[in-house]
Amino acid sequence: MSVSRTIRKVFEAIEQAEGAGARVRRSIGTPNLRNFSPFLMLDHFSIKPGAGFPDHPHRGQETITYLLSGGVDHEDFAGNKGTIEAGDLQFMTAGKGIMHAEMPRQNPDGSANVGLQLWVDLPAHLKKCEPRYRDLKAKEIPSVDVDDGKVHVKVISGQSHGVDSVKDLAYTPVWILDVEIKPGGKITQPLPKGWNAFAYTLEGQTVFGKTGNQTVVEQYHNVVFEPQGEVVYAEVDAGTEKSSRFVLVAGTPLDQEVVQYGPFVLNSKEEVYQAIMDFQTHSNGFERAEGWESEIGKSMVH
């Protein structure tokens, strides 16, 4: 028998304002959950037309954006630009420095653009790597059906029931699985040994754990697992009316200091001061920031 991971804690991600007019439910990167390496932050965002994240810098981390509905345009000072739509992902490695803008689509019906953004720490030796972008389109993501079709897993990164994801999207090894469970469905999902893991519930009510040690988790709650154990069990009660959906995420912990100041994530205060100085003087990776303005960010300038 595989050993089930026990739950360390469950807490709700409370909605707050962020950026220019965006609403965000932040779970990782709050007093409830800090220092959960390699994860720095998890935001469940809702951005209405006219809001967004105009030109801003990053250094030292990777961001993974998973769009659930709507569309988001991105553009950076290296000339990368593109749009992700519902079901697509964007992987951005800030490395030694990037400046970019992320702006939501102006949906004709005025609806919000909703998604998840996960910040992943970079190992110290990669903090100064060249910045890069990768998009992963919804149609490129393999999926697998489990438990007679009652469970559907999109294998964004990692492995599930014999299905392997597209390789090497992030520098720090991370698994991301989008799991939908219909009433009466259940899944046993193995995870890499010793990796930190959590599940964020997007919809419905999910029961985590084995009989005798089960926890019912509601929408917008983050479930943090203990690192011991090989599998996560999840099911939805057969008597429930609606399906549940959650993202299960695991990553290899990094043994290093995390010193974060806004969009800069480094290993010491000195490196943070250096990042601020480099950005202000357009040097050591921020040369291209001088005079750069994104086209998409101009929609925010009133």
TrEMBL record:
Cofactor: Fe cation
Domain Pirin N-terminal span(s) in chain numbering: 22-120
Keyword Iron: yes
Keywords in alphabetical order: Iron, Metal-binding
Classification via SUPFAM superfamilies: RmlC-like cupins (SSF51182)
A Pfam family assignment: Pirin
Pirin C-terminal domain mapped to chain residues: 177-284
Binding annotation for Fe cation: H56, H58, H100, E102
Cofactor: binding comment: Binds 1 Fe cation per subunit.
The keyword Ribosomal protein belongs to this UniProt entry's keyword annotation: no
GO molecular function: metal ion binding
Family indicated by similarity: Belongs to the pirin family.
Entry protein name: RmlC-like cupin
Protein species of origin: Coniochaeta ligniaria NRRL 30616
